[in-house]
Amino acid sequence: MSRRVAVLMGGWSAEREVSLVSGAAVTEGLRQAGYDVRAIDVLREPRHLLDQLTPAPEVVFNALHGRWGEDGTIQGLLDILSIPYTHSGLLASALAMDKPQAKLVFERAGIPVAEHVVVSRRQLAAGDPIPRPFVIKPMNEGSSVGVHIVRNGANLCTLDDDWHFGDRVMIERFIPGREFTVAVMGDRPLAVTEISTDRGFYDYDAKYAPGGSRHVVPAQVDPGVYAEAMRLALVAHQALGCRGVSRADLRWDGERLYMLEVNTQPGMTPTSLVPEQAASVGISFPQLVAWMVEHAECDR
């Protein structure tokens, strides 16, 4: 008898639409792998989700992206229900999603990060907190949602009225150079992908729109840099306490690699990087999602 798996998707974050695409792909992949799958579009009503999870599935595949889905919120609920779920647990999810806290963990583990400060929107409007160019990031969003680059010669930055990501923002020194990403599967870094785009930086549209970015896997870079990117991704995965699959994003300025962030719920869409890296080392999409289900855990 096939195992019963519930795929959580959708949600109500800024990444809802991407999550729906990820969830649909995961649902199909798990069915191809022989699982009994039920897709659940998660609403902002706990009772609805509890009803959908009754009777309890054997495993939850968490295909939610963004706040509430990958910041420890859903993970805590599933821990209470004692239902094993894919990806990282509550603490690792919360740490990775909070960018300043994640940087503290990286620094303690000896991983280079870009200089950064946390300021209020009022302080940002009063003047540049650090020398330009710099990057403005919400404290706890994913998929480059809300990210702005402030370059030399640009006007004083004031966030628009449609900024919905809180009063505190992280200001990070912009690292010029090449962008790399590394998926970690358990204790195994899979590959290094170089990402390039004509959009100026790897923003939300570059990540998910067809043709928005170009991926080269394996990245054509010095073997020493390649090996160091793989090592840093695994160290970051372990330092945060991640489990299952994660994906580390790094920048290479020609001399040094810098860790940008670790995604504990990496995308599983047709253009996503983790399935692409898995395929490059001989792991099909159904095999990838099946591995994730078989390695699901919860904190009982």
SSE layout and pairing:
Blueprint (H helix, E strand, L loop, with lengths): L3 E7 L5 H17 L3 E7 L3 H7 L6 E4 L10 H9 L8 H8 L1 H10 L7 E5 H6 L7 E5 L9 E3 L17 E6 L4 E8 L2 E9 L7 H5 L5 E3 L6 H18 L4 E8 L4 E7 L9 H8 L4 H10 L6
Parallel strand pairs: 1-2, 1-3
Antiparallel strand pairs: 4-7, 5-6, 5-7, 8-9, 8-11, 9-10, 11-12
Helix pairs in contact: 1-10
**What is the CA-atom radius of gyration, in angstroms?**
19 Å
| Distance between the amino and carboxyl termini | 25 Å
- β-strand percent reads 15-25%
For the record, what is the CATH homologous superfamily label of the largest domain? Answer: ATP-grasp fold, B domain
Going across the biggest sheet, name each strand in turn: 10-9-8-11-12
Helix-and-strand structural type: alpha+beta
Mean pLDDT across all amino acids: 90
CATH architecture of the largest domain: 2-Layer Sandwich
The number of helical segments is 10
Count of separate structural domains: 3
Helicity level: 25-40%
Q: What sort of overall outline do the alpha carbons produce when their principal axes are compared?
A: globular
Under the CATH scheme, which class of the largest domain? Alpha Beta
List low-confidence stretches: none
Order of helices and strands: EHEHEHHHEHEEEEEHEHEEHH
Task: Report on the biggest sheet.
Answer: 5 strands, antiparallel
Tally of extended strands? 12
Instruction: Return the CATH topology of the largest domain.
Output: D-amino Acid Aminotransferase, Chain A, domain 1
